[in-house]
Amino acid sequence: MDENELRRRVQEARADLAELIPDAGERARVDSQLGQALNEPPGNAKSALMAALRSHEAIRRWVAADTDRIFSLAGDVTSPVGVLWVCPKKNYTVMRETPPEEPLVCPKDGSVLERYDR
Ligand SMILES: [Zn+2]
User: Ligand 1: distance of its center to the CA of 11 in Å?
Assistant: First the structure.
C-alpha cells in the first residue's frame, strides 16, 4: 500500500475519531498524533502514517474491521502477528498465530476460510 493510500486511511480514521474514541482526552492525543503523521513531508511519511494507524487500539480495530483495509494493510500492519485467514466471500477475516488444526469456518456464511498470502 503506498503512502497516498495510507494518508487517505489516516484521514478517514481521523474523520471517524469521535466515534472510534469516546474519551475526549484520549481522542485529542490520538488526533494530534494522526495530525502529525499527516504533516510529514510527502515521500517520507509512510512510517509515521503506519505508526499512526497502529497508535490506538480503536484505530487498529477500525483498520481490521474492514476487509478491504486489512487486505491492503495485511503485509504491513499484521505480518508480525500471524497469518490472516479470509472468507472467500470476503465478509470475514481472522488472524491466527499458529496454524489451525481444523479448517476455519466463516461464522457468517459457513465458508471454509482461505489462508491469505500477499
Ligand atoms: Zn463469509
Answer: 28
Total residues found in the chain within this entry:
118
Sign of CA dihedral 19, 30, 50, 2: positive
In a shared domain, residues 6 and 42:
yes
Question: In angstroms, what is the span from residue 93 Cα to ligand 1's centroid?
Answer: 8
pTM of the model: 0.55
69 Cα–ligand 1 center, Å: 16
Residue tagged 481490521 (cell numbers)? 64
94 and 74 co-located in one domain: no
Spell out the per-residue pLDDT of the chain, length 118, in tens: 688 888 988 998 999 899 889 999 999 999 999 999 999 999 989 989 988 988 888 888 887 776 455 555 555 554 455 778 899 988 888 888 777 888 999 999 999 999 887 5
**Domain range spanning residue 108?**
82-118
